[in-house]
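Query structure, 139 tokens:
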């Protein structure tokens, strides 16, 4: 591995890191969700995305894994919550995920989205998205 040296003084202040985000994109989970008779008791495929904006924008020292977010934990928490009970609505599941991750140390903003990809043959999915910020604030 090449030893990269910092480019001290060469990076303009105007393009410094201003945000740090981790995400798990479209994790596929099976969950008992829906309120129609044909949905109750028949787990459905959901695609879950969680994006966390973080307080710390520093690079882990010496590329140390123990200083990074544990993606396995994020994945397992999504699976645990999605499988913890039966949900009538995607909104309810998204809020449960949101509350869990919003309570974590260092999270400053959060977005959670879910989509049922198998509902309409002429659509990629139908879903819900909730966030702690307005759309224009992150563009």
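Result returned for the query:
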């Amino acid at each position: 591995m090449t030893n990269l040296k910092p480019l001290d003084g060469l990076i303009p202040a105007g393009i410094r890191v201003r945000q740090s985000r981790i995400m798990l994109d479209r994790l596929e989970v099976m969950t008992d969700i829906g309120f129609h008779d044909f949905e109750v008791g028949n787990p459905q495929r959901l695609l879950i995305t969680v994006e966390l904006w973080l307080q710390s924008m520093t690079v882990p020292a010496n590329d140390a894994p123990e200083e990074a977010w544990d993606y396995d934990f994020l994945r397992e928490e999504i699976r645990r919550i999605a499988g913890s009970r039966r949900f009538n609505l995607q909104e309810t599941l998204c809020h449960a995920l949101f509350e869990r991750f919003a309570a974590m140390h260092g999270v400053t903003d959060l977005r959670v989205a879910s989509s049922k990809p198998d509902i309409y043959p002429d659509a990629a999915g139908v879903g819900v998205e909730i966030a702690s910020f307005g759309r224009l604030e992150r563009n």
